[in-house]
Each structure stands twice: as structure tokens, then as C-alpha cells.
Amino acid sequence: MEKELEAKYLEALGEGDHEAFNMLFMSYHSLVKRFLFGFIKEEDEVLDLAQEVFIKVWTHRKSAASADSFKAYLFRIARNELYNYYKLNAIHENHLERYYQQSVWIDDLMEERILAEELGLLLDIAVENMPPQRKQIFKMSRKEGLSNEEISLKLNINKRTVENHITQALADLRKVLKIVLPFFI
């Protein structure tokens, strides 16, 4: 959406204009869904979370209207909804605790650090959602620093299988980055 038109809709949104909300919804709903679908593969869950994002936009329309970047504002809400989703399902409690503990004392001057950390957390979530063997091999390679040959010996599998899993894991992470990076710009 063009910046000037977006600014006009945001101003009207702040005043409670339903039509402006509808235009912003139509412009950004698919982007929010794509972002969420990168982490949650159940379409019904993604639709519910995307709806929650826009309910929050309407509920906090004055904040949305004054945001420096509406895309970044949407991303923050979608990210928080994603975190809440995983928290409720008790899948990624450690990641959430780390994020919330650190976010209490980090101020605006640390925004770049926050974004880098959030990106790391999102990538960790993507790794956790990989098939079990791919996740194990990727962690052994990248977290433990083992060579492909060491991994193949430890797991008693072919070295080429290890290489294939690492290649696929990196491809999976690149897909996540393609979805997430527009929100950081």
C-alpha cells in the first residue's frame, strides 16, 4: 500500500472510521496470514490468530494510527499472538521466558538488538518445527559444532543423508526469513 494512502487510512482509523479499517484489513490480512502460516501449519489456527491481530488493531486503533510503521506494528501484534499461541500450547516456554525477561529492561535504544533476538527466536521456533531427524542433525551441526562425518557416525547414518538434512534445514530457514524480513524493513 502506498505510504500516503496508508497514512490517510491510519489517521481515519484513529478516529474510528470502519471503512479505513476495512481498507487496511484488505491490504494487510494476507501478509499477516503468510507470516503466521510460516510457523503454524493449521489453517484454522492461522485464520483465528490473524483475526485476533486485527481485533487488536481495532481495539487499539489510536496506537495503530500513531505507529511509525504500520507493518512493524502489525508484525509486533502478530508476533505476540504467535508467542501466546505457543505459550498456551506449552511448546516454547523457554523462548518466551527469555524474551519476556529481557524485554522488561530493554529500552528503545536497543531496538536493533531486540529485532535480532526476535529473529533468532523465530528461527528457533522454525527449527523446533522441523521433522525430528532433521532438527536433531541441524542442532548437532550448528549448536554442537559437529562435522557431518561425526554426526553420521553418532547417528549411524550415511554422511550424504546428514548433508541432505542440513541442506533442507537451511532451505526451511531461508523460507522463514523470506516471510519475516519484510516486517523488519
UniProtKB/TrEMBL annotation:
Name of the molecule in the record: RNA polymerase sigma factor
Gene3D superfamilies: 1.10.1740.10, Winged helix-like DNA-binding domain superfamily/Winged helix DNA-binding domain
Domain RNA polymerase sigma factor 70 region 4 type, first and last residues per copy: 126-173
UniProt-listed SUPFAM superfamilies: Sigma2 domain of RNA polymerase sigma factors (SSF88946), Sigma3 and sigma4 domains of RNA polymerase sigma factors (SSF88659)
Lineage: Bacteria, Pseudomonadati, Bacteroidota, Bacteroidia, Bacteroidales
Domain of life: Bacteria
Swiss-Prot/TrEMBL keywords: DNA-binding, Sigma factor, Transcription, Transcription regulation
Family: Belongs to the sigma-70 factor family. ECF subfamily.
Domain RNA polymerase sigma-70 region: start-end pairs: 24-87
InterPro entries found in the cross-reference section: RNA_pol_sigma-70-like, RNA_pol_sigma-70_dom, RNA_pol_sigma70_bacteroid, RNA_pol_sigma70_ECF_CS, RNA_pol_sigma70_r2, RNA_pol_sigma70_r4_t2, RNA_pol_sigma_r2, RNA_pol_sigma_r3/r4-like
